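Figure 2 data, in text form.
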Amino acid sequence: MKKRIVLLILVLATAFSMVACSEKSEGKDNVDAKSTSGDVLETNVIKWTSGNSGNIMLTIAEKKGFLAEEGLKVEMVSATANADAMALLATSKVDVVSNSGTSNPLQQIAAGVDLTIFGGHMVDGSMPVIARKGTVWNGVQDFIGKKVAINPSYFAFTGAVMDLGYDDPLTAVDWVIYANYSDAMAAVVKGEVDYALQGTGQMYAVNNMDEVEIVTYHGKVMPNYSCCRLVTQTNFIKENPNTIKALMRALIRAQQYYEANKEEAVNIHAESIGATKEYVEAFMLNENYVVSPDPLKNPVIRAWGILDKTGFLNENAKEIDILDHINTDLYKAALDEVMAKHGSEDPEFYDRLLKFYEEQNQ
């Protein structure tokens, strides 16, 4: 029943897919602006939505002048939920979405919305799985036959259950869907469910709860599960390749700055999203919080396959080659250019970034 409901919801996405494919990005500004590579930017304004927990690489890129050096300006557009963010993107109200996971963009693509994944935000989002205090964790096998407050479209978990040998992970576990993470946490406290996934922004609350404890993390269940991808309309990336490449250069430099200055980054980001330092520290200084603008092509393909096998993609997906909706070329070109210009500033970091790209995209 849950499966049929999800598929019905996905079909609704096609209602605005025709609009998404036909509309052009508006509001181009100063088309003569040049980036650090000397390329002329097709537009120097990018409309962006990034969710409540923000995007630390974007924050640093703006605060440290990396965007300005590239001739870019980002205009933030608020969205109250992942579905809202994807609807804004599909109707050209925003150009880039960065905090709406991997499942959401892939489900939109399967439903016929012409989107392209061209980069990333969080590789691992410091998303804890909680249980009542004293619960012993042996691995994903502990989910079998239990009530688990995780939406089964979160492919890392259904994929991990399939890896245990279960052909139908939707029946092997009693997946329970709540409206938000707070309700899921309350369900654990009340004993209504055995486990619950929490979002990045819930880390502070979880750490201050006496009744629950963290048993594992999303990224430990499936390493490099791709968390949040950078996604845009395919037309936008085709029409604005120099702009996208300039953006990726700024984000790559921001990742380097973040990893070298995490304590400062906490303060910068807390101010940017209007949160306390303690709230941001709870997720940002956790080892399970990993950011990178890398597209992660291979993990995205893996996610597409799991979502298809578990029935969370529109039937149209079988006619779609997901590789047509992943662009790694602009990120790789940006990485090469940044390494040529700034590689000597932190050779260990850039060597690691190149190796990571090769592992995740080739």
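Caption note: Residues 1-28 have pLDDT under 50 and may be disordered.
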